[in-house]
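Researcher: Structure prediction, please.
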Amino acid sequence: MGRKEIQGSWKKVVSNIKDIFDFREVLGSGSFSQVFLVREKKSGDFYALKCVKKKLLHHSNLENEITVLRRIKHSNVIGLHDFYETRTHYYLVMELVSGGELFDRIIDRGMYTERDASDVIRQVLEAVSYLHQNSIVHRDLKPENLLYYSPEENAKIMISDFGLSKMADHGVMSTRCGTPGYVAPEVLAQKPYSKAVDCWSIGVITYILLCGYPPFYEENETKLFSKIMKADYAFHTPYWDDISESAKDFIRSMMEKNPKKRFTTEQALSHPWIIGDTASDHDIYESVCEQIQRNFAQSTWRKAFNAATAVNHLKKLHLSHSEPLPPPPDGIPDIAVEDTSCPGPPGDALDSNGNLTATLVPPETHKGLCPLKPSHTEPMHSLVVTETGKHAYHSESDLPCAKRGTNRCGQPIQTGICSVM
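Model: Predicted structure follows.
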């Protein structure tokens, strides 16, 4: 069988990509690609360059990703700047963002309110509404795919990772894909589904942003999926006691089990919690950051490198015009992916009525998720990516880019993890 090729007159064919870009450093690696911080020689502009070996193309979602990215242009969506081809590789020249991940920003800020969460969700809704208007369904919306454009305090949110996106010109899809915990009930029920799956995911993200833990958590994926398919979630006390009824109404509308009754992005953008003054200014930082640390910190630093966007460690670079770093070694290393633990439920487990139950132990692995097509190199919620023959980073202190400290909750944090989409 011949090697699969990406066709298109818009490709730029070059003999050596280093004639176009100065390579500054490796940003991250995935199963099928490697991403570099590069500086375009002609313009002096910085980009994230995603490199994919042609012989690995049939294993990746690259062709689908390019098809989607070439069709969209929105201020809250990470854009594709250019596309190059050599004899052995394809290269996606992606917009570079440097503001870090959503959870990291919440932990770093020191004060956090419903209004802050509402502003984040409004930007996500505007971007996803644009996608839906262009017949594109993201299908893998989650906090890890929401990045800040720059380190500035008022930086905008950017949506990343379009590897599972779908051109849904006819409005109906059937492939089971996404990330456990964020996937809509109709996907798990193996029913035909529509762009409403993105709205469900936004509802899940909103829930997490207001309490710090996921709406669905179980010791194994069978129970997890059962809860999702029943839309069996609750607003537990005391975590939701200070959250407005307007916020809860917004979540109910987005996490409606029946996709035909679920809010569209247009309806969501008109909800008072998004455009009105019903989002509370009460500081919920202490509670939310504590739960984020308990439930998501590990997944942040252990997760696989997704493909194409620089994040936290670029803060130190400030896109300076300093002397170029030594170029990285030629070639793309062989990558092995190793499963690690999923984020667990809140430390004080609650039943569906908000009552305390016995403390649950986070599962060691989610082994049975094969029916779900994973997001790039993420067959479960959390993975480790290692080069063949090298040590996997199994502890926070082992991380090469981690800068450790404490947040206002007195818990350890990191603000320098190398991670790319």
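Model: Confidence is low (pLDDT under 50) at residues 298-408, 411-421.
Researcher: Thanks, that helps.
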